[in-house]
Amino acid sequence: QVQLVESGGGLVQAGGSLRLSCTASGRTFSNYAMGWFRQAPGKEREFVAAISRSGSSTGYTDSVKARFTISRDTAKNTVYLQMSSLKPEDTAVYYCAANPAGISSATKLWAYWGQGTQVTVSS
Questions:
Q1: Triad 9, 18, 109: Cα angle to 5°
Q2: Residue 115 has what DSSP assignment?
Q3: CA atoms lying within 13 Å on the CB side of residue 67
Q4: Is 18 exposed, middle or buried (0-12, 13-18, 19+ CB in 10 A)?
Q5: 3-class DSSP assignment, residue 85
Q6: What is the rounded distance in angstroms from the CA atom of residue 50 to the CA atom of residue 57?
Q7: pLDDT tens track for 27-82
Q8: Nearest CA to 68 among 43, 45, 92, 86?
Q9: Tens of pLDDT along 15-38?
Q10: CB-count exposure of residue 25 (10 Å: 0-12, 13-18, 19+)
């Protein structure tokens, strides 16, 4: 089992920035690709970004490219999502996820999930 705890969400004005953190425990952090997903009210959970086990590869959904950056710190068992130039449409609950099989944008392939952190962007 892998336990994931997100933090860093909050209320920010459009154009602002936030950094989300997700700390993992329970298993070897470097054995898992890590990802961020989000779910807005009334919508399906969607892929945002992911980073490979080594950190050498990353992937993003088109709507956040050039605005969001995913990174990981193995020494701290933590994955980050730096979000800049935030837009009201980025408002959602953001979830951290872990996958031993590698990077994927398919929600159903991710094995472990955190409880989520709310991000609200005001216009």
A1: 65
A2: -
A3: 16
A4: buried
A5: coil
A6: 8
A7: 889 999 999 999 999 999 999 999 999 999 999 999 999 999 999 999 999 999 99
A8: 86
A9: 999 999 999 998 889 999 999 999
A10: exposed
